[in-house]
UniProtKB/TrEMBL annotation:
Keyword Magnesium: no
Pfam families xref list: Pro_dh
Record-listed E.C. numbers: 1.5.5.2
UniProt KW keywords: FAD, Flavoprotein, Nucleotide-binding, Oxidoreductase, Proline metabolism
Pathway as given in its UniProt record: Amino-acid degradation; L-proline degradation into L-glutamate; L-glutamate from L-proline: step 1/2
Xref: SUPFAM superfamilies: FAD-linked oxidoreductase (SSF51730)
Lineage: Bacteria, Bacillati, Actinomycetota, Actinomycetes, Kitasatosporales
Record protein name field: proline dehydrogenase
Organism: Streptomyces yangpuensis
Domain Proline dehydrogenase: 45-298
Cofactors named for this entry: FAD
Length: 308
């Protein structure tokens, strides 16, 4: 299995240097990460929304080591929100944040991350949009869910992410669905031990369907994060059986992957949101995209072989 190997490499400083220095890396990275600055990504957002799509924006970066870096992450999102407001894009573009980038792993990290993310959520609400808290490895989730619950007291549209490969997720889904939360379900993209997660693809897919049914039957707003045609079709059927209208759930896919499917779902009347990342600290995000799907890795390797 190449996935676990790539995920291990995503934490390796040596591999970071090798991949970053490879001549072909930048063109391939651009497939998944369309810019490093707000000025570079805003035109992408405008193009996507003109095409009938919605967007969630992620300023990439994690594994910070200094409090000052967490403040810089907060400020980067506040700058993004300011630009979205100027262009009237608040209703079409939300934000996704990783609490590790907001200081969650530092000393006193839970309180620090909450203090950093709250002004971002407040600013997002002021322009008519919201924030979704991304899920990271299993050791961070209790803190993430507690911050999510705290933020929802004042900003009930704040979303969160759950990962189908974790054993705990069915219980988390039941709680979140009962509470009426906005929940993105994904398969999961971190290297997790067998004690806490399914490692077999078929078992992960089965768990995904069970969890998605819980969300569709619940009181919240499901966000189906998948590029898998079978799971997309199952999601549509579960929504139909639950009596959900097209605006009562949405699909989410990554920028640069199955772009024609983005447009097809939007043309059918579905809410289709494109997860669009940008920033200079792209390595961890990029490596997880390679690990998630063999086709992504083959695309990278082929580019390295054929590059003149």
């Amino acid at each position: 299995m190449l996935g676990p190997v790539i995920l291990a490499a995503s934490r390796s400083d040596k591999m970071r240097r090798i991949v970053s220095a490879a001549p072909v890396t930048k063109p391939v990275v651009n497939r998944f990460i369309p810019g490093e600055t707000v000025d570079q990504v805003i035109p992408i957002v405008e193009d996507l929304t003109r095409a009938g799509l919605e967007v969630t924006l992620d300023v990439v970066g994690e594994d910070i080591t200094e409090v000052e870096q967490s403040h810089a992450a907060r400020d980067a999102y506040l700058q993004l929100i300011e630009r979205l407001a100027e262009l009237g894009l608040g209703e079409k573009a939300e934000m996704s944040v990783k609490l590790s980038m907001f200081g969650q792993a530092l000393e006193g990290g839970h309180e620090l991350a909450l203090a950093n993310v709250r002004p971002v959520v407040e600013a997002a609400a002021a322009i008519g949009t919201t924030v979704t808290l991304d899920a990271e490895d299993h050791t961070t989730l209790d803190s993430m869910f507690a911050i999510h619950e705290e933020l929802r007291k004042d900003f009930p549209q704040t979303g969160c992410v759950i990962q189908a490969y974790l054993f705990r997720t069915e219980a988390d889904a039941r709680r979140l669905a009962a509470n009426g939360s906005r929940v993105r379900i994904v398969k999961g993209a971190y290297k997790e031990p067998a004690e806490v997660a399914y490692l077999d693809k078929a078992e992960i897919d089965k768990a995904y369907v069970r969890i998605l049914k819980i969300l569709m039957d619940g009181e919240g707003y499901p966000m189906i994060g998948s590029h898998d045609p079978r799971l997309i079709a199952i999601g549509q059927e579960l929504a139909r059986k639950a009596g959900r209208k097209l605006d009562e759930y949405e699909f989410q896919m990554l920028y640069g992957i199955r772009s024609e499917e983005h447009l097809r779902l939007a043309a059918e009347g579905h809410r289709m949101r494109v997860y669009t990342a940008y920033g200079t600290d792209w390595y961890g995000y990029f490596m997880r995209r390679l690990a998630e799907k063999p086709a992504n890795l083959l695309f990278f390797v082929r580019s390295m072989i054929t590059k003149n």
